[in-house]
Design goal:
The complex is a heterodimer of chains A (159) and B (529). In chain A, 32% of the residues lie in helices and 24% in strands. Chain A is α/β, with parallel strands linked by helices. Chain A has one domain: Pyruvate-ferredoxin oxidoreductase, PFOR, domain III (Pyruvate-ferredoxin Oxidoreductase, domain 3), CATH 3.40.920.10. In chain B, strand 10, helix 10 and strand 11 form a beta-alpha-beta unit. Chain B is built from 20 helices and 19 strands. Classes of the chains: A alpha/beta (159), B alpha/beta (529). At the A-B interface, helix 1, strand 2 and helix 2 of A face strand 8 and helix 10 of B.
Chain lengths: 159, 529
């Protein structure tokens, strides 16, 4: 069987929910029974610097890091961070970034990460229900409603 | 059932499942979550003032018949080296696991030292996991080895193993704890020369037995691939190798000290080209060559930074053409509203010569402050500042200010105060403790100055100004520099002019932590009533 690995890089600035967005992608793929590896570098990230995190999933995954130029999807939570991370994207890859979301429709600007996941979800094999379950598992319950709205805003099926 | 855990969480889960008596350490990226997760799972955990103390507490636990896990980042091992190198001679009654979390590429560190060297220096066995499942399994294996041979064992992790999430299957009661009665046996634990000489020889014997055990039933993985290319590897490099060279034969070593040299010899002989792929120092290469086996080393430029799939491909292809430059991202900065900002504005404007230390305030070196002259390691600010005061011409010496944080002051900073009182410079000295009430850089950990333990419950609070006055520091000031910037500026200025010893404690809580601190204080006040 061919081992097709999906490579996703999520990037932005410290405090924008980059790491929790990556956790959700990892969670949704893991719940679907796939092998998942997720990698991040933090430490200085709390101080507002550039942050990026990788998720790889498939039937068999070795390295947790996405090689330069091999990301199938690059998700960026701050438009000005696109040039910093552009090199991660494969020539046929899909860029999903902040300015593609109408932020005025978000309940809170903080939900930009989930809105971008909504947009990403259109390209991946997991159902909206599976995504929302992962979102529920990874955020406090009180944030769920806002996040659900953000997810569908990004997905383009406004709730 | 499998769960997604990062490497740190997996180590903590193994420690918990094995009934480890105590988890301790000093916070440091990328190791911090081990002890914190162990606490969350219900294990007994505590922060030590520094890594040396943590390891010594761990030795005591293991001598007394408990299992101990002691965690630190790579540079913490330098602090803990003294008890490690002699503790290795002693017989532990129960497991003592020392976790070294190395940071190749320096995601959040001041150097990229390779702590595999410490296993050799201390003569302690060392396991190197390559993912979270191995972090779990090797922690258990390390406990078994530690108890079978009564020797402390190192678990060497790296940033990508600590902070990558991969699937982990936990085990039910994997290593039951037998009852234990403590008996006195100074010949194996009181390291005077007469006993230590015997213990040293015994330790070498243990290592020979452990190497033999590893050959027979240790964690060695052999992937049979093409005979044209054989790769010897360990840790995270193994994962990159499998992606970069799916066709290669691979020998993956889970125990990297002592090495299973016979297995390596057989593997090397079975392939045409035998290449060692490892991050950091040419550690495996040197060990293997010492065993008389010819293997190929990586090119020099792959010694720096982390490896990844792309770099391993280049390494195999002997491609040392320039690698693409990373587009510089936004550097980290002191948070808006951070109290350290005011301090560095003042130090910059007064043109102080700043000997800085390790913490968030390390960011005072970057614009818009650029107030820092130097920083080396935890606790170095005061002694390095003193050395400069002893040497610079008076007009410059007067402007030297040592800057450190509250957790760093407790870690090893206080040693510098002892030196300052013992050998005061002719111009006096000025020390600035930026007390923001928390160990902020590593993500808000408690320290002996906060009055709260790892779980935020109350404990004895070490009050810095009381300690400094009791030690005999002539001028001790406590000030909120943000609320009183003009007064603070004058205080620093006046202190520099005096040939006296002055410590200024700029006290104002970390903006990110202040709400949590209020909550913990409230909970502790209520539990006292």
């Amino acid at each position: 069987m061919q081992n097709r690995v999906t490579n996703i890089v999520i990037a932005g600035l410290g405090g924008q929910g980059v790491l929790s967005a990556t956790d959700i992608v990892a969670d949704v793929a893991f719940a679907a029974g796939l092998e998942v590896k997720k990698s991040e570098v933090h430490g200085m990230s709390q101080r507002g610097g550039s942050v990026s995190s990788d998720v790889r999933y498939g039937t068999q995954v070795f390295s947790p890091m996405v090689s330069r130029g091999e990301a199938d999807f690059l998700v960026v939570t701050a438009t000005d961070q696109v040039p910093v991370n552009q090199a991660a994207l494969s020539p046929n890859g899909v860029l999903i970034e902040e300015s593609q979301i109408d932020a005025s429709k978000l309940t809170t600007k903080k939900a930009i990460n989930v809105a971008l996941l909504g947009k990403l979800s259109r390209h991946l094999e997991f159902t909206p229900e599976a995504w929302l379950e992962a979102i529920r598992r990874n955020f406090p319950e009180k944030l769920y409603e806002g996040n659900e709205k953000a997810f569908y805003l990004g997905r383009g099926e406004g709730a | 059932m499998k769960v997604l855990l990062n490497g740190d969480e997996a180590v903590a889960a193994a420690a918990f499942d094995a009934g480890v008596t105590l988890g301790t350490g000093y916070p440091g990226t990328p190791s911090t979550e081990i002890v914190e997760t162990f606490e969350d799972l219900g294990g007994k955990s505590q922060w030590a003032p520094n890594e040396k103390v943590a390891l010594e507490v761990g030795l005591g636990v293991a001598y007394a018949g408990g299992r101990a896990i002691v965690t630190m980042k790579h540079v913490g091992m330098n602090v803990a080296a003294d008890p490690l190198l002699t503790g290795a001679y002693t017989d532990v009654n129960r497991a003592l696991i020392v976790v070294s979390a190395d940071d190749p590429g320096m995601a959040s560190s001041q150097n990229e030292q390779d702590n595999r060297r410490y296993a050799v220096a201390a003569a302690v066995p060392m396991f190197e996991p390559s993912d979270s499942q191995e972090a779990y399994d090797f922690t258990l294996l390390a406990i078994e080895v530690s108890e079978r041979w009564h020797v402390p064992v190192m678990l060497r992790m790296t940033t990508r193993v600590c902070h990558s999430k991969t699937a982990v299957e936990r085990r039910e009661n994997p290593l039951p704890v037998e009852p234990f009665d403590y008996t006195k046996n100074p010949r194996v634990r009181a390291m005077v020369p007469a006993y230590a000489r015997i213990q040293h020889k015994k330790l070498r014997g243990k290592l020979r037995e452990i190497a033999k055990w590893c050959e027979e039933s240790g964690p060695i993985t052999r992937i049979e691939g093409s005979k044209k290319l054989g790769i010897i590897t360990s840790g995270i490099s193994y994962q990159h190798v499998r992606d970069a060279a799916p066709e290669a034969s691979v020998l993956k070593l889970g125990l990297t000290y002592p090495l299973p040299i016979d297995s390596i010899r057989k593997f090397a002989a079975s392939v045409d080209r035998c290449l060692v792929v490892e991050e950091g120092d040419p550690y495996l290469v040197e060990q293997i060559r010492n065993g008389g086996i010819q293997v190929e080393d990586k090119l020099e430029n792959f010694r720096y930074g982390e490896l990844n799939i792309d770099r391993v491909r280049r390494l195999i292809a002997l491609d040392d053409s320039p690698e693409a430059e990373q587009v510089p991202g936004k550097p980290p900065a002191l948070c808006p509203g951070c109290p350290h900002r005011t301090a560095f504005e003042v130090l910059r404007d007064l043109k102080c010569i700043v000997a800085n230390d390790i913490g968030c305030y390390g960011l005072g070196v970057l614009p818009p402050f650029e107030a820092v002259d130097l920083s080396v390691c935890m606790g170095s600010a005061i002694p390095v500042g003193l050395g400069m005061r002893h040497t610079l011409p008076t007009e410059q010496a007067k402007r030297v200010v040592s800057v450190l944080g509250d957790s760093t002051f407790m870690h090893t900073g206080i040693n510098g105060v002892i030196e300052m009182l013992f050998n005061p410079p002719a111009t006096g000295h000025v020390v600035l403790i930026l007390d923001n009430g928390i160990t902020a850089m590593t993500g808000m950990q408690e320290n002996p100055g906060t009055g709260r333990k790892l779980d935020h419950s109350g404990t004895n609070k070490i009050v810095f100004e009381n300690v400094l006055r009791a030690m005999g520091v002539k001028n001790v000031h406590v000030i909120d520099a943000v609320a009183n910037k003009a007064e603070f500026t004058k205080l620093v200025e006046d202190s520099m002019e005096k040939p006296e010893l002055t410590v200024i404690i700029a006290r104002r809580e970390c903006l990110l932590a202040v709400q949590s601190i209020r909550g913990w204080e409230k909970a502790n006040a209520e539990s006292c009533n």
